Amino acid sequence: MAPIAVETPQQQAPVRGPIDYKEAFITGPKAFKRDIEEHGSENQAPASYPHYLPTWDPKVYPPLQPFEHYEHGKDADPTFPHLFANGTHRPLAPKIGSEVNGVQLSKLSDKGKDELALFIAQRKVAVFRDQDLADIPIQEALDFGGYFGRHHIHVSSGQPAGYPEVHLVHRGAEDTIARDYFTTRTNSITWHSDVTFEAQPPGTTFLYVLDGPEAGGDTIYASMTEAYNRLSPEFQKRLHGLKAIHSGFEQAENSRSRGGVVRREPIATEHPLVRTHPVTGEKALFVNAQFTRQIVGLKKEESDFLLKFLFNHIAMGADFQVRLKWEKGSVVVWDNRVAVHTAILDWDDGARRHLARITPQAERPYETPFEERK
Ligand SMILES: [Fe+2]
What residues have a C-beta under 5 A from ligand 1, the ion? Predict the structure, then answer.
C-alpha cells in the first residue's frame, strides 16, 4: 500500500493512511432482513417507521458539481428571538453541546432557521427533544433540511424507497454483528465528520431517531474548534497552510466488497488542515481518522506521525466532547464543519437501531491566516 503523491486529487487511486478505514457498523443489502424488520421477531417489535426501512437502489449518479453555498447563519439575529420564542436550551458541556426543549424544528420560520444555523455553529451540536421530523412526510422533512444547503446523496448507504437524499443508519433487529465485531476489535470508536472527501462537505446536518435500543447507541461529538484552541500557538502556526487528502475510496470499496452499491465514482480531495467557519470566524482542525489519509508535501512517516498525533488529540479530548443520548423524538443537529462524531456500538441484545440523516452540503473548506490569541 504505497502512498501516492496527489497532483489531481479527483482522479487518484486510494491513498491509505496510518489508520485504515474502519467500518464498525457493517450493514448493507446482504445483511438486511426485511421480514424481521417489517414483522418483528420473537423478541423485537416491527420497525416503528417501515417507510424509512433501507433500500439500495443501484442507480449511478454523475460526479458532484460545484455549487455556490448560501450560509444562512450569516443572516441570523444573534439573540435568537425566533428560534427560542417559546423553547429553552441549556449547555451540556462548556465547549460543545446543548439540549433544547420546546422548539419544533419543522415549524421554524426562515428567520428561525437562520438562527438555528448560527446557534449550531456556536454550540457545534445540539439535541432537540420531542420533534416531529420522523412523523411528517419524508418530502417535508427534506424540504425543511434543504433550506441549509444542497442535499447530499450518499455513495453507499441505504435510503428510504424514493428518497435518495435521506441517508439511513440502520442496524436490524436480531443483528449479532456487535458480538462478531469485537472478536477482532477492542472498540468501535470511529471519529469522523461526514463525507469529508467531498469537495464541499456538509455543514448544518440533521440526524433523527426512528428506533433505538433502550440503552446504548449514543453518539459522541467533539469540538474541532476547541481541539484547535488547545494547541500551542507555535503548533497552530505550523498547521496553517498545510493541506490533507481526504479519501472516499475505502468507503466505496468497503460497500462493493460486501455486495453493496456505489452510486458515484469515489474521489479524494485536498482540504486545509485548519478551516475557518464562515459565520463565527472560528478556526477548527479539519482532519479525521476515517477519511484523512495524508498531509500534502510531507513524507509518509512525517505525515503518519502528525496525523496520528492529531487523531489521538481528538480522541483523547473528553474535555471538549459531549455524549448525546437518543430518546424517541430526538433530533441531533450539528455543524459538520467544526465537529467530529463517533457512533458507539455497545449494545448486543438484538435491539434495532434506525436513524435518518439529512445532509446539506456547505462551502468548500477554506482557511484564514493564523492569529495571535488576545
Ligand atoms: Fe457520521
Answer: 194
